[in-house]
């Protein structure tokens, strides 16, 4: 059955090949590039982002080669409100957000999908490396490029209108196919870091918006070891850039253990103090083949993008997800997503609020 498909084209190789595959399969495809900045020059330039004028031109050229209509949709205001402002406010509250995950949730599969369905499209296709089989979200066959984690926030309804054509291919195969199709983006480097921070300086970006406010860096006993210019510049598990005045007696490195925004205090300590076995997460979304786990469910959990996977037991109680890890994890930060898996199948996700 032929579908009307809106192909989100970032200007990179993945989304170009995804659009080409959908068109070749006989579907009625329209390409769309999302303009996410009212001032594109303020976002990453070259091949390092997905929001630049260069990316828009690359997407248009790819659409021309594929032979599909192409449009640019202005999503700058929505992106700034739902992704950039959310990013700043999360850091201000002592949490560590994932803006790519939020962009997928609020922009690509809320704002864009809603508009696409209103215009009569059946589905939205993207270049994410993940598989979607019978409505079930699974990891990509390319473990190193798998993006199922940042798609774990999507609802079953959103997944029912999504197409991820690349999940069965490795990145190397995608690049080879792009070259064979005559797509100029075949060798374009992958984007890295955060697209809306032009120079990659997250701390500077936050300082500009939140202001510098000096505060103490303390150890677990409360002894002051140094000062910082803003607690938002740190994240749980961080080791570098602490610039402490007093070294440890045994010479071992210290890590950020917690961030308290109200008192503007950063607490540091030994690596073993980072270990957590219990996680609380809110805003749960269950999009997999199993029902909400009102009894303990044996599964696996991933706690950050491209992070380690841990065996666990997950249980939903009072709208809050409680996760008991089989083995302790380190560097668990509030604000990140906990995505549940059964093997390579995504079961659902929730946003981490506390750990112990």
From TrEMBL:
Domain tRNA-specific 2-thiouridylase MnmA-like C-terminal: 278-352
Class of the enzyme per the UniProt entry, highest EC level: transferase
Residues under site feature: Interaction with tRNA: 128, 336
Keyword Lipid biosynthesis annotated: no
Family of the protein in this entry: Belongs to the MnmA/TRMU family.
Reaction catalyzed: S-sulfanyl-L-cysteinyl-[protein] + uridine(34) in tRNA + AH2 + ATP = 2-thiouridine(34) in tRNA + L-cysteinyl-[protein] + A + AMP + diphosphate + H(+)
Gene Ontology molecular-function annotations: ATP binding; tRNA binding; tRNA-uridine 2-sulfurtransferase activity
Domain tRNA-specific 2-thiouridylase MnmA-like central: 204-269
Keywords tagged on the record: ATP-binding, Cytoplasm, Disulfide bond, Nucleotide-binding, RNA-binding, Transferase, tRNA processing, tRNA-binding
Native species: Sphaerisporangium album
Compartments, record wording: Cytoplasm
Pfam families registered for this protein in UniProt: tRNA_Me_trans (PF03054), tRNA_Me_trans_C (PF20258), tRNA_Me_trans_M (PF20259)
CC terms in the record's Gene Ontology section: cytoplasm
Active-site positions on this chain: 103, 195
GO BP annotation list: tRNA wobble position uridine thiolation
Region (Interaction with tRNA): 145-147
Enzyme Commission identifier(s): 2.8.1.13
Keyword Transmembrane helix on entry: no
Primary location recorded for the protein, binned into one broad class: cytoplasm
Stored InterPro entries: MnmA-like, MnmA-like_C, MnmA-like_central, MnmA-like_central_sf, Rossmann-like_a/b/a_fold
Name this protein carries in UniProt: tRNA-specific 2-thiouridylase MnmA
Binding site residues for ATP: 8-15, 34, 127
